[in-house]
Amino acid sequence: MNTLRGWTPITKVENVPLREGRAVTVGGSEIAIFHLDGRYLTIENQCPHKGGPLCDGIVSGTTVVCPLHGQRFDLETGMPVLASQPACIATFPTRVEGGVIVVDLGGSLKLSEEATV
Amino acid sequence: MKRQLVVVGNGMAGVACVEQILKQPHDFEITIFGDETHANYNRILLSLVLAGEKSPEDIVLNDIEWYQTHDIRARLGVKITGIDRDKRVVIDEDGGETEYDKLILATGSSAFIPPIPGVEKKNVHVFRTLDDTKALLEKARPGLKTAVIGGGLLGLEVARGLQVRGCGVTVIHLMDTLMERQLDATGGEYLKRKIESLGIRVMLPQQTAALFGNGRVDGLRFVSGEELEADLVVIAAGIRPNADLARSAGLEVSRGIVVDDYMATSDPHIFAVGECTEHRGQTFGLVAPLFDQGRVLACAITGDRGPAFTGASPAAKLKIMGVDIFSAGSIDESEPGVETVRYEDPSLGTYRKLLLKDDRLHGMILVGDIEDEHLYMDWMRNGTDLTPYRRQILFPPRDADPGREMADMPDSETICGCNGVRKGEIIEAIHAHGLTTLAGVKACTRASTSCGSCTGLCEKLLRAVTPDFQEETRTTLCACVPFSYEQLRDIIRGQKLKSVEEVLNIYGNRKGCEVCKPALSYMLDMVWCGDHEEDRSARFINDRVHANIQKDGTFSVVPRMRGGVTTPDELRRIADVADKYKVRMVKVTGSQRIDLLGIKKADLPKVWADLGMPSGQAYTKGVRMVKTCVGTEFCRFGVQDSTNAGIELERRLENLFTPHKFKMGVVGCPRNCAEATVKDLGLVGQDGSWQVVVGGAAGKSVRKADLLITVETTEHALEACSLFFQYYRENANYLERSYDFIERLGIEKVRKETVYAPEAEKTKLLERLARSKALAKDAWLERERPMHPTQFVQIQPMEAQRT
């Protein structure tokens, strides 16, 4: 059962290295936090294509490439970069407070339902 | 009796002029005086010597043999101090006199040293000659604080050279804009950003008031009152024609030695050429017009007044790799009747501005992308009416028929500005020697051997002239960083780049992608033999956590079992691990290894620790394994000890990265039970010898390996393996398997450059391999010393941790 709602302190900024992502389990699901040169962006961790862990993808500009089959998503909007990819992914407002990454998990965490186009 | 021709000055202009004279029928006995002791060298490439891209030998234009072959008396290290025009002699510093019938002054120019207090201090240098360059090279070392006074062409090139040598560099420029004689404010700003992204500090506008320090320079004080510490100062504040000799001889001298359209001075027996001259009020500092002057002078002095020298419009190109700047013609926007068109893209760092007058191209500034330089220069030189091109003028269509543009170019046009090679000469060489490759053109004409910016033109010319043109295969790595693999290796090496970020920021789109980042990571590791800045964000996930990601996001773990040999103990540990971590499948692989599938990322370090075995590198583009048969130890048919040879081979190469995965096999007899002939590298045992075979494949395609060499001893066989292995590492494109590599190069070339290479080359290959090997570690040791604290950790939200 997920009890985390709204703005939630997740982890210290130094735990997410530059241009990499890290997965965080919140409730039964996972989010992925990325570090882009001082900015932190959060998306749902599961690639809508075949469920690949997006946190493990290579970052290119503000996009991330799924390590399994190369689907590419914009970290700011959650939108797929290619029109041939049907689905987008959920994004979560993220800010830094006192060296801690704080993510707005919203009202509930039914990630993939929110994410359908 | 032959007439005496004396040339004072052994630089580029003087000698280029003599080369032209030698092409004419003449009756001269030629003497060249040079106050430097070196034979003639390419001065404009000195900055590349400073940067380590060229050696002093590389920039020699005419060696001593050349002087001998052409019966030229070279008097090097001799300074001419006077001319007696009545006696027609030149006088050297020892009072010796040399008679002349005709005299050519090619005295060049010297660095201008501004009258700043303190310029006489130690460690204040200029940059003009090979000796200046050597003096700088002796002092330049990592961490040295250096300042370059002057942000023009030369100053920036020196700054880059010093910085590549590891010095901290600040460029101080008097004006608001770098290279302000060639660029406008916008172009200068783009250039400044590029230079700063290379790691060079730029201070402008900043006027130096004094250099301070007790005997030796310690720093600079500016008119603004600010100060800058510096252990070494290079002054690159412009040049002045060397006209004193001419002046003292009573020749007409203004800023330079005044010459007419046939390069004659005010004395009909004396001519002048190069940077010491002044023609119609103009002095010269760039190389191309000097070659033109030399040709005119050669005709005039041998009696056949040919074409006149009518001046040159300025054209300048910055020779810093990756910082492409070209400027030509007039850049003065305020000139009446001039209109400008411009385009800029801040992200790409490109800027171009064209100045038009009467629908003709009048001047240009190109920053970041200078590919259209030659077309624009053509338009400008020929005064082409641009009315029909106006709509596409900023992006002229690159001609679909490569022959046409080249056909339009006159034979007299210079293609290689560095070496003064004209189109006609290249065509002549292509026909005379039946050239079909760029390499051939380089060898025969010297075109494209210096800065390389005319490479494209030379290729176009080849394509247009010879039906048999063989293009050098060059694949661009990726749109993010649009260079060939070979160029990128040169860039990384030459520009001393140590991280993926640096390469992308300076030579790419600053972003990179999943294609180029791993490729660049590999190249950096290979070029620097492991001594680079490892950036895990640029690696595929497998290389971040040293395991192979599976479709469900879990990982597979394959420990190293050298030669496919294991022990009961290892097997027990593997079984225990499989139990403890509830491994979903234990699989014997085709590579004689054991694969544990379904491990969670967070468990990887614990699994490795429990296994107590090194990484099998089954997840990466690297040394996978050596598969062996039991050989002489057990097999009735074995004629070589394949098991131990295989284990030793694996030990020597393990933990190294390769362009693509690299599989090996060693078999103890030609029955080939461990399939060595379909591996990237294989040893096939025979009675009393080993066959070393390379480029085999048994994947998507099947290919029988080629024989590299047959050797008698196991040690020789292992050395041959090492040679091929390192050669493949250094020359294959990323993701190019050995079998594609061999097909591309041909086994003969590979043999010639590995096992049959000169001993010195072999030693170098092996040394680089040894250096890489010395820094290569078992990746699984990161279980104890992770690259990052959360490398393998599954992060838990703070709230959850508290509850």
Largest sheet of chain A: 4 strands, antiparallel
> What's the N-to-C terminus distance of chain A?
26 Å
Mean pLDDT of chain A: 86
What integer is the average pLDDT of chain B? 90
Low-pLDDT ranges of chain B: none
Number of strands of chain A: 10
The secondary structure category of chain A is mainly beta
How do the strands of the widest beta sheet of chain A line up side by side? 2-3-4-8
Q: Give the percentage of residues in beta strands of chain B.
A: 15-25%
Count the strands of chain B? 43
Indicate the percent of residues in helices of chain B.
25-40%
**DSSP strand (E) fraction of chain A?**
35-45%
Order of helices and strands of chain A: EEEEEEEEEEH
Describe the protein in words:
- The complex is a heterodimer of chains A (117) and B (803).
- Chain A has one helix and ten strands.
- With 117 residues, chain A is mainly β.
- In chain A, the strands form three sheets. Chain A has a four-stranded antiparallel beta sheet with strand order 2-3-4-8, with no helix packed on it. In chain A, strands 1-10-9 form a three-stranded antiparallel beta sheet, with no helix packed on it.
- Chain A is globular, with a radius of gyration of 13 Å.
- Chain B has 803 residues and is of the alpha/beta class.
- Chain B is 31% helix and 22% strand.
- Chain B contains 26 helices and 43 strands.
- Chain B is elongated.
- The mean pLDDT of chain B is 90.
- At the A-B interface, strand 1, strand 2 and strand 5 of A face helix 26 of B.
